[in-house]
Design a protein that fits this description.
Helices cover 87% and strands 0% of the residues. By secondary structure, it is an all-alpha fold. It has one domain. 27% of the residues are buried.
Length: 186
């Protein structure tokens, strides 16, 4: 069986890809498991990380405004707001987790709407019900966020980030294995 890949003609690139995918896959798996088993800690870490990202973005926006147009008061205002919001999330991470919880709720409800729309467009086709099931699960998760908000955010944000990182780790480990198989086929 021939597999097509960007790396199939470059043994060194294939080796590096396999090695680093395995390393980062294990790291993602472990961090994901930590989030699954300690969701409150992962929720707080996620909020603090997001807050620092906002503050870093604010500094970059301010630098850009300084270099391009020092009189652009909207650029300065945006930088200021990003920095203040990021600092508030870092200082009060539980409030940041609650805000992330609301954003996740909106995301899951929008995802449900899209999944229901797709399911009913696909309905005569086989497996249309998978999109319907995805929509039902997304509604359930979104409502769970809303009904238990803000308390549910402490558990759900970290848990969902942990699950995502866990499956990212599995994907990286799988890609590492596939890269080794491609290398053996050469």
């Amino acid at each position: 069986m021939v597999r097509y890949s960007l790396f199939t003609n470059n043994k060194e690139m294939l080796d590096k890809f396999s090695k680093y995918s395995k390393i980062y896959g294990v790291i993602f798996l472990l961090i994901g498991l930590a989030g699954i088993f300690y969701p409150a800690v992962m929720s707080l870490a996620t909020a603090i990380f997001y807050g620092w990202l906002l503050m870093f973005s604010a500094i970059m926006m301010a630098l850009h405004t300084w270099q391009t147009n020092k009189k652009d008061w909207l650029g300065w205002l945006k930088s200021f707001i990003f920095f203040i919001v990021g600092a508030m999330i870092v200082i009060y991470p539980t409030a940041g987790v609650a805000a992330l919880g609301l954003m996740f709720a909106v995301y899951f409800l929008m995802d449900a709407f899209a999944s229901f729309t797709l399911a009913f467009e696909l309905k005569p086709a086989s497996m249309w019900w998978i999109s319907l099931l995805n929509g039902i699960l997304s509604v359930a998760i979104g409502l769970y966020f809303i009904i238990g908000w803000p308390i549910s955010s402490i558990f759900l944000v970290g848990f969902l980030v942990g699950v995502s990182l866990f499956f990212d780790g599995i994907a990286l480990l799988t890609m590492s294995k596939v890269a080794k198989e491609v290398e053996k086929e050469r």
